[in-house]
Amino acid sequence: MTKNAVFVYSDDQLNYSFSDEHPFNQKRITLTLDLLRKSNAIQETDIITPRIATDEEILLVHDEKFVDIVQKASKGTLSKSAGEVYGIGTEDTPIFNGMHEASALLVGGTLTAVDEVMEGRARHALNLGGGLHHGFKGRASGFCVYNDSSVAIKYMQEKYHARVLYVDTDAHHGDGVQWAFYDDPSVCTLSIHETGRYLFPGTGKITERGNGPGYGTSFNFPIDAFTEDESFLTIYRAAMTEITEFFKPDVILTQNGADAHFFDPLTHLYGTMNLYREIPRIAKEIANEYCGGRWIGVGGGGYDIWRVVPRAWAHLWIEMSGQTQPTGPLPNDWLNKWQPEAPIPLIPTWEDPDPLYKPIPRKAEIEEKNAHMLAQALHTIRGSNV
Amino acid sequence: MLIEEIMVRDVHTLQETSTVREALDVMRKHRIRHTPILNDENTLVGIITDRDLKEAIPSTFTPGEHKNIYESTIDAIMTRNPIVGHPMDFVEESALLFYENQIGCLPVVSNQKLIGIVTETDLLYNYIELTGANQPGSQIEVRVPNIPGILFEVSKVFHDHQTNVLSVLVYPDKESTETKILVIRIKTMNPLHIIEGLRASGFEVLWPNVPGIDV
Ligand SMILES: [Zn+2]
């Protein structure tokens, strides 16, 4: 029997941990899962254990030398200077014990999700431990060591001969995945992100459209700081629909970074919880209409782990598993359990407080600029429809 | 940086006896817009651009026989004695040459021989590399007093945080002559400690810098 959705999780996923002070903190998965349990929105039978990716699988995308460096760092036998050019032992991706295994498990989790969907055991599958979209073939970057999505896409190509659409709504550009398939016409990447003018990594311009045979299968939608929900969602909806119709994927892989929210300390998009209710709703609709439901979701960024990520990712699972989106107060026992540990007051409801912030000056101009950007970014496929 | 470090060495050239048709073929085949022209001693005598060619060729709507134009030699339409550069010229000075003379390319000559070419595209890419924008990083802008020694004060903060700086550019502040703007690209996804450190040292950090909106 095909399940609606499976949730890939094991406690070992929390081992991907640089330090207690590092902004990338997998405790957000614990908080999400606990919120889902206390909301009766997940059953133990929905949860499946991730496998660890083999070296061979990681090498589908990553360079041997890089994997070797990570393995040495993992065992503590790498000097700091030797890792630097590979992005290992840097401020963003410091060395920690067992980092190879922890990173390989996140990759394996996404592969587990892939197999569930591609072998028809579930229509959709979610691995919140994945979504490490900044990982390059030969270098760690932006808190990411191995790039689970890139490996999963290559794996789907080889094992299932699938055309994959990768959709990235993290506030940062999905650079690692984009560059991994920049020349490949059978993979389409779509990234919506805050403009790289100030924000890491700086890439993701409209003009990055792919290279050689892959030209026209890489789409970027850089949106302005202070964009807010409405304009973000307009762009997302148009991009998703038109690109899916154009590319005709067999399966959709979505990266669900939850760092475009107003509370997120690293970005300036001023989104609200509405984003995280709408993004998966549209993804599911599109996957059902064009891909026979084949949809794999992964996590990603999200640096307000108390007020934003648990609610955002709970919405994602609830949508994926076909339940009604919750409203009103969060379960009391969840709030009571975590408030003592949280350094800030938790948001007690599924919705954000309204208003969440003071109105943004220049809103109309920002929306106009974004609309102009959308038209330019979709120009190549809109042109060919005429 | 010197011109020889950014110039293209593998140059597609034509002879002054080449025909317009040959010039068109070379430019289309190699997707280039400028071609240096050599004489039979392999000395640079001119340059031809895609614009020169377009102007020489009659519009396809003009009736009549144009065969002779395609078969005519390019020495009639090329620019003679073009501005040239030396491999040891500074990139900054050469960029000024482009700007002041409104040229699109600069043949590089040493010992009377053509050894390379620099185009606007090469200069632009060099600029992009200078800004560090070709490497993953975050960008912050700092408004600092326009006084000596200030760069040192700012760099101290980066040193204290062991932050890898990809590039630093200094711009005049449009709002005041008493301050200037430093644009700094750093190799991290998390610039928050740096921003905090700079603010603690009394500097105004613009991140992100959107005029009319304060964060
Ligand atoms: Zn992000």
Can you give keywords for this protein?
heterodimer, A: 386 residues, alpha/beta, Arginase, Chain A, 8-stranded parallel β-sheet, 13 helices, 39% helix, globular, B: 215 residues, alpha+beta, CBS-domain, Alpha-Beta Plaits, 2 domains, 4-stranded mixed β-sheet, 4-stranded antiparallel β-sheet, 33% helix, 26% strand, elongated, binds zinc ion
How would you describe what is shown here?
The complex is a heterodimer of chains A (386) and B (215). With 386 residues, chain A is α/β, with parallel strands linked by helices. Chain A contains 13 helices and 8 strands. Chain A has an 8-stranded parallel β-sheet, with helices on both faces. Chain A is globular. In chain B, 22% of the residues are buried. Chain B has 2 domains: 3-127, CBS-domain (Roll); 135-206, Alpha-Beta Plaits (2-Layer Sandwich). The model of chain B has no long low-confidence stretch (mean pLDDT 89). Chain B is of the alpha+beta class and 215 residues long. Chain B has helices spanning 3-6, 20-30, 50-56, 67-71, 91-101, 120-131, 150-160, 192-200; strands spanning 14-15, 34-38, 44-49, 79-80, 105-110, 113-119, 138-145, 165-172, 179-186, 204-206. The chains are: A alpha/beta (386), B alpha+beta (215). Chains A and B meet through loops of A and strand 7 of B. The structure holds zinc ion. Zinc ion is lined by residues 170-172, 257, 259, 301 of chain A.
Layout of SSEs?
The complex is a heterodimer of chains A (386) and B (215).
Chain A: E1 3-8, H1 27-38, E2 47-48, H2 55-58, H3 64-75, H4 80-84, H5 99-118, E3 122-127, H6 148-160, E4 164-168, H7 175-180, E5 187-194, E6 218-223, H8 228-247, E7 251-255, H9 273-290, E8 295-298, H10 309-320, H11 332-338, H12 363-377, H13 379-385
Parallel strand pairs in A: 1-2, 1-3, 3-8, 4-5, 4-7, 5-6, 7-8
Helix pairs in contact in A: 1-10, 5-6, 8-9, 8-12, 9-10
Chain B: H1 3-6, E1 14-15, H2 20-30, E2 34-38, E3 44-49, H3 50-56, H4 67-71, E4 79-80, H5 91-101, E5 105-110, E6 113-119, H6 120-131, E7 138-145, H7 150-160, E8 165-172, E9 179-186, H8 192-200, E10 204-206
Parallel strand pairs in B: 1-2
Antiparallel strand pairs in B: 2-3, 3-4, 5-6, 7-9, 7-10, 8-9
The complex binds zinc ion.
Residues 170-172, 257, 259, 301 of chain A line the site of zinc ion.
